[in-house]
Amino acid sequence: MLVLSQSRSHSTESVSAGRAPDGCGTVQIVRSHDEELRDTTRCRRFGEISVRLVAGGPAELVRPARLIDPGCPGVLRVIRPLAGEALLWQDGRHATVRSPELICLDSSRPFKLVMPQPFRLVEAVVTHRSMGLTTADAARLTARPWCGEQGIAAFMSTLLGGFQRHGDEIETAFDLFGGSIVGLAAALFAERMRSAVAEPDAARQSLMLHIQAYVRERLADPELTPSLVAKRYNVSLRYLQKMFREHGTSPARWIRDERLARCRCELSDPRLEHLPVALIGERAGLYGASHFSRLFRDRYGVTPREFRREKVTG
User: Fold this and answer.
1) Are residues 253 and 299 in contact, defined by beta-carbon separation less than 8 angstroms?
2) Please, are residues 196 and 141 in contact by the beta-carbon 8 Å criterion?
3) Is residue 173 predicted with pLDDT exceeding 60?
4) CA nearest neighbour of 153 among 204, 97, 85
5) Claim: this prediction has a pTM higher than 0.70
6) Which domains does the chain have, with CATH numbers?
7) How far apart are CA 158 and CA 153, in angstroms?
8) Range scoring the smallest mean pLDDT among 72-81, 168-177, 261-270, 275-284
9) pLDDT tens digits, residue range 143-172?
10) Facing residues of 14 across strands?
11) How far apart (Å, rounded) are the C-alpha atoms in residues 5 and 41?
């Protein structure tokens, strides 16, 4: 929040009062106390999701519409206070949360976030695109406190809380940790949208989130197809295609892109350098070395081997 580095997979930084970029424009950092504001952020990325541990003194963060970058992709932040409380104003709502509660903030739209006391918090940051959400969908999730002691929110609260207590262990297995957060975030958003004020497309969007979570869990299955997904959720293939078309893609293309994104993440992981490139593809359901290489090059402009080599030498 106070320091939002998008370029590094792991970082620790500090800021002082004034303004700071966060990938969607600029936030105003306001001091309401005499103490000097010094806040630190520890960040770890997993594909399109990042987890940040933030600690600091009393602070107020404000993003007016004029400071939003028009080219910013939609970004949702699930905030879990560890110490102190957080007060959020967004989308005409106001809420206060304390540990172990959760709250969701959309940093691509105007908001005000206040930490009135010294605080520690952890947040999971995801894009609208990675969760299959529209701006209207995201607006149903923001500034609504979620109980961290029941339902899916309890699992997410516990998982994020563990980022503070078990950081060293998580560093060595962050691919698994990050994958768990992706799945939980999708399930949590689906659950909370069902609980929000009913709107005509809420049920369809909830179904979309469940479908995406189902697919992500089964990317390694080479038999995973749009027809199989449609059958699993008792909808027609035509209806499934219509749902994905509303998000600018198709079921087959989305499955392929998710598989390639997983391969890209694993090819970037130095702990997996011992695995052959072809096996990386197979782990994501892409069989046939030449087929995998062609798809990867079409998507990212380089072959899997070239991409891995650039990561190692770069």
Assistant:
1) no
2) yes
3) no
4) 97
5) no
6) 10-173 (2.60.120.10), 218-313 (1.10.10.60)
7) 9
8) 168-177
9) 999 999 888 999 999 988 887 765 555 555
10) 40
11) 9
Query: Which token pair is 51?
Result: 């987890």
What six digits make up the tokens of 100? Answer: 């172990």
d(CA 81, CA 100): 7
Bigger pLDDT: 94 vs 199: 94
Q: Could you write out the DSSP letters of every residue in the chain? A: --S--SS-SEEEEEE-SEEEE-SSBEEEEE--SSSPP-EEEEEEEETTEEEEEEEESSEEEEE-GGGB-TTPPPEEEEEEEEESEEEEEETTEEEEEETT-BEEEETTS-EEEEE-S-EEEEEEEEEHHHHT--HHHHHTTTT--B-TTSHHHHHHHHHHHHHHHTHHHHHTTHHHHHHHHHHHHHHHHHHHHHHSPP-TTHHHHHHHHHHHHHHHHTTT-TT--HHHHHHHTT--HHHHHHHHHTTTS-HHHHHHHHHHHHHHHHHT-GGGTTS-HHHHHHHTT--SHHHHHHHHHHHHSS-HHHHHHHHHH-
